[in-house]
Amino acid sequence: MREGSIPGRIRPGRRLSSILKAVLSCLAVVDVASCDAGASADDRGTEAEAFSVRDSAGIEVVTNTGFGWSEETAWRLEPDLQVGELDGPLAFGRISWVAPGPDDRMFVLDAQSHFVHVFDSAGRSVGRFGAEGDGPGEFRRPSAVMPVSDGRIAVSQGFPPLLHWLTSDGEHLGSTRLPGARDEAGARSAGAFGLWQVATSGQVFVQVQVIDPGADDDEMPTVLLEVESDGDYPPDTISTWTWHAGIGDEPIRVFEPVPTWMPRSDGSVLLSHGAPYEIEERSSEGGLRRIIRRRVTPVPVTQVHRDRSLADMRENMEDGGAPPEIVDDMLERAEFQPTVPDVLRVWVSEGDGRLWIGVHDAGLLEETEPSTPDSWTNAWDVFERDGRYLGRVPVPEGFSLRVVTEDALYGVWEDELEVPFARRYRVVRPGA
Q1: What pTM value is reported for the model?
Q2: CB neighbours of 155 closer than 8 A, spacing ≥ 6?
Q3: For residue 213, what pLDDT is reported?
Q4: For residue 351, which of 227, 338, 389, 406 is within the disulfide window of CB 3.0 to 4.6 Å?
Q5: Does the pLDDT at position 100 exceed 80?
Q6: Helical residues (DSSP H) of 136-295, grouped into ranges
């Protein structure tokens, strides 16, 4: 089904849904002048201003101080393809991933049915594969489907962390499991919750919660690894950090910055720690190559943010089966950060290597509108591959992004009744 216009309003999204679900399932120098991201249009420059330097360690630092494109040159999104039904054989239960395939096809992973659906360039269903189970070609709690340039497809699951390799027709080729490494302190990565990403080159990366007997009850040590697809060799460590989960007697820290990352097709990794507004480009061995910065004014957490976050967390906890008294206690002790993280998500465009950075724009937040699918991201900042800032694109109402290519965005769109559809938007670049 093709459409000629995009939804007219923007809704804020849910900030903590995926994090809370993971916790419940596991229980699962450069100085620049500042600029105000909330300035009026009359005060803004019409072109992005950026410069780069190389510091003494040989790391390129790109700092952006401008506001990007003008109103006349701003990029826009046009709905191009939508698949799914309100009722019938193509009515999806819970879409966890949407990705492009060869010959302009679209792969849609329904985590509820455990099937990967395949659609042609016109949106016609041309097959499906998968099933719930532990046998070849079967999945448990699948989270993403990722095509690779050599024709293979990777389907990931978070717990236990496992990567399934299949042909484009769904024939099982093998699996990747985390190596059972254990350090001197007794911490190990195998068996913990894993978040997988596969570059189009076939390189495999995974973020895992480390099982550390020496960590505090509230601490979740986390490590980002590159692993061999056959799992035979020790992984390379890209980065490590600690996340405070708000488990037990510890309060939930709402709007606490959370690291987010994604690999490029060449095997390098883009990583942001959420605040300040900074993205690191690291090699697959973890070496720091480039730092991309944008100076913005942090967005204060208002009562609107607090109310919507509490309502969202309550819904997720109750859906997860938490007793009402526990839900009430956890929400009463929730601690809110003073500002929203500067960076909420990092995406990398296949083909041109541009960065799409998920941010929260206070100017797009309407007090009367309900929450959207899964995060507080309501806009994307777009950067060239070399780190130069281009401009900001609002998130279409009800849309959650999964994959970016040079000319299109793929993701999940929900209607007013929260019925999920897979949707592709074409990127329109005036004057290009």
Answers
A1: 0.83
A2: 109, 116, 130, 139, 142, 144, 145, 146, 163, 164, 166
A3: 60
A4: 406
A5: yes
A6: none
